[in-house]
Amino acid sequence: MANRVLAGNRASGGYGLYVSRPGNNVLNCANDKLMFNTNSGESGTAFFSAGHFQVVPTAGGTGGTAPTISSSTVVAAGSTASPSYQNFASNKLMLWGAPIVGFTANTNATAAFFTYSSIGTTSATLSNTSNASITVTNLSFNLLDTSALF
Amino acid sequence: MANRVLMGNRSTGGYGLYVSKSGSNVLNCARKDLLFDASQSRAGEVYAGGSLSSLGNTTQNFLSTGSKANLGYIPLVVSTEDRRGEFDDGFASQDGSEQFYSSRIDVLEFTTSTIHPKSLGSTADQNFDFSANQIIGPRFTGQSCTNLKFMVLKIPLAYGYMNNTYFG
Hints:
The complex is a heterodimer of chains A (150) and B (168). Chain A is mostly beta strands. Chain A has strands at residues 5-10, 14-20, 34-37, 51-52, 55-56, 70-75, 80-81, 93-100, 110-117, 125-128, 134-142. Chain A folds into 2 domains: 5-46, no CATH class; 55-142. In chain A, the strands form 3 sheets. In chain A, strands 5, 6, 8 and 11 form a 4-stranded antiparallel beta sheet that branches. In chain A, a hairpin with a 7-residue loop joins strand 9 (110-117) and strand 10. The radius of gyration of chain A is 21 Å and the shape is elongated. Chain A starts with a strand and ends in an 8-residue tail after the last strand. In chain A, 31% of the residues are buried. Chain B has 2 domains: 5-37, no CATH class; 46-167, no CATH class. Chain B contains 1 helix and 12 strands; from the N terminus they run ββββββββββββα. Chain B has one helix at 164-167, and strands spanning 5-10, 14-20, 34-37, 45-55, 60-61, 75-80, 85-92, 99-102, 106-110, 114-120, 136-137, 145-156. In chain B, strands 5, 9, 10 and 11 form a 4-stranded antiparallel beta sheet that branches. In chain B, strands 1-2-3 form a 3-stranded antiparallel beta sheet, with no helix packed on it. In chain B, a hairpin with a 3-residue loop joins strand 9 (106-110) and strand 10 (114-120). At the A-B interface, strand 3, strand 4, strand 8 and strand 9 of A face strand 2, strand 4, strand 7 and strand 12 of B.
């Protein structure tokens, strides 16, 4: 059986916690064979990862309080709202929304367009740019970095 | 408090590292209640990403920052932009003999190293021509890609890559 978990000093990556994919030796496998690592600032072709894809809860998620993953916001046509979330990632957020809207068949360009802007540490502006009220389910993800590219 | 972290032999999964969700016993909870499960092939490691105020009809190399190595596969990219929400475009000719329907057509095209805004197909209107309209090409007017945020995950997600070669 391959070594799968390393808490210690890896030849490539240094001290940290590493988990390899099934069948791969965590001690010396290629970077892409790792399914978890605590990177230590590697760059170039030795780069491991920027972090892990994580949800930022809209409420809870601290201490023994279970996280609430999403929120629901009703926004009138042409109006704005302010969905909120926990301050787990400052303003480094990717906001994801799914609208609920009723369509009328054979009408031109019925739309449920909306945008997020003014992304702050605990809330953002949700703008409904369509011509009908919509209900948006909001999900927040930790974007890890606000650079143009990272 | 429930056991949350296991580094060892789990009855379902074998030796590895496991972390359960709040309130779930990592020793015997269902797989769906694990935040991290080392018995699986890949997890949501972010390899690259970015926030671009706009991206025109051009490719953006997401490996350029830090000169990262190409992953060797087309990865799963999670993204958002201002072109979001649902869209329903329909057209019916005056005599009712023709009816066309179009949903969202603004998409993003990915390669092993680039992200590129595209329009897929064409919106429905009276000038729709199956023989002439593009299948996939530059974004149409009014469909520009703005406020793009994306994260490139180390998960192969394209034809030819979703197999044991890339998941093993």
